[in-house]
Design goal:
Order of helices and strands: HHHEEHEHHEEEEHEHEHEHEEH
Strand content: 15-25%
CATH topology of the largest domain: D-Maltodextrin-Binding Protein, domain 2
Structural class: alpha/beta
Number of domains: 3
Helix content: 40-55%
Shape: elongated
Number of strands: 12
CATH class of the largest domain: Alpha Beta
Strand order of the largest sheet: 4-3-5-12-6
CATH architecture of the largest domain: 3-Layer(aba) Sandwich
Radius of gyration: 32 Å
Length: 310
């Protein structure tokens, strides 16, 4: 591939657009003589006269007009791609590794808010299902711009933990189902919607409500059996986002994490029909490498802790 000199192309494009070597020289911050020399270099390379020289200026020849129209889109593409690359390289790359519940229900609807405040930070969001079951998978290296968002005890080795607003467990349902719930026992008239990985949420809330759960769980440790097929009153889902959508659709009642579902409760899309809550030993945390002070990490943590996400 044999290309003309780029400086010659730039000089020709500017001169052709302005129909003036003088205006091109001002735009390119070079002398008129330099523009003339670059244009002559291009004409020699192409074997075509591109400008008619007059006593009072220059004008494009027919060949020059055709060549200008041909190269302008290509030069514009180069300029656009180059600018995008510069912007990309100038941004800090921040990786967020989140459990599905935080990513799907809470974070994706709020990232735009953060990005508007921090346009110099490029977010890479990764969902990690395994973090739900194994907190020990969190391994962060000092100096890397990575934040883990999980539901844990917040005491992982070699990490700093930053808590979201205090989470509480409360029964939630949609408006239609709520009209049929006059006392806590009425929940058994509806399917209980369960996240397989957060089965203990139901145990904690039922205990707070002083409801007998022995008829729902058949294992000695009061956990759901391995197969949901033997249930009559429970619908078991793989992800908390599925529980949420089923609850919004009126398919039953669920245990709501107030930290994640705050906006749904505020708008009335979900209702907490009883003033009964429970707490979990775990909370929602942002985890970083120990003593990480990198600007992008600190910006996200400050936003996260202050709760500027609405």
């Amino acid at each position: 591939m044999r290309l003309p000199p780029l400086n010659a192309l730039r000089a020709f494009e500017s001169a052709g657009r302005h129909q003036s070597f003088l205006l091109a020289s001002k735009e390119l911050h070079v002398s008129s003589a330099s523009v003339s020399r670059f244009v002559k270099m291009l004409e020699t390379d192409l074997g075509q006269v591109l400008f008619n020289r007059h006593a009072n200026g220059v004008s494009l020849t027919e060949a020059g007009e055709q060549y200008l129209l041909a190269i302008q889109p290509a030069l514009q593409t180069i300029a656009t791609v180059s600018e995008n690359t510069r912007e990309q390289n100038s941004k800090s790359q921040l990786t967020l590794i989140a459990i599905p519940a935080i990513a799907e229900i809470w974070l994706v609807s709020r990232l735009w808010n953060f990005q508007q405040q921090h346009r110099d930070i490029q977010i890479n969001l990764v969902i990690d299902d395994q973090l739900v079951l194994n907190d020990d998978l969190v391994q962060l290296t000092a100096g890397e711009q990575t934040i883990v968002l999980n539901y844990s005890h917040g005491n992982q080795i070699d990490t700093d933990s930053f808590a979201m607003p205090k989470d509480r467990l409360t029964l939630v349902c949609n408006q239609e189902v709520a009209q049929s719930l006059h006392c806590p026992e009425d929940i058994f008239n509806f399917p209980l919607l369960v996240d397989r990985d957060w089965q203990e949420d139901w145990v904690a809330w039922l205990q707070s409500a002083k409801l007998q759960s022995a008829n729902l769980w058949t294992t000695s440790d009061n956990k759901l059996p391995s197969s949901p097929l033997i249930f009559e009153r429970c619908l078991v889902f793989e992800r908390y986002s599925m529980v949420l959508h089923a609850t919004l659709a009126g398919s039953g009642v669920a245990i709501g994490h107030t930290t994640l579902l705050q906006s749904y409760l505020q708008t009335g899309a979900l209702v907490a029909p009883f003033d009964i809550t429970a707490t979990s030993e775990k909370q929602f945390y942002a985890l970083t490498a120990k003593n990480t002070q990198m600007p992008a990490v600190r910006s996200f943590i400050d936003w996260f802790v202050r709760g500027e996400f609405g």
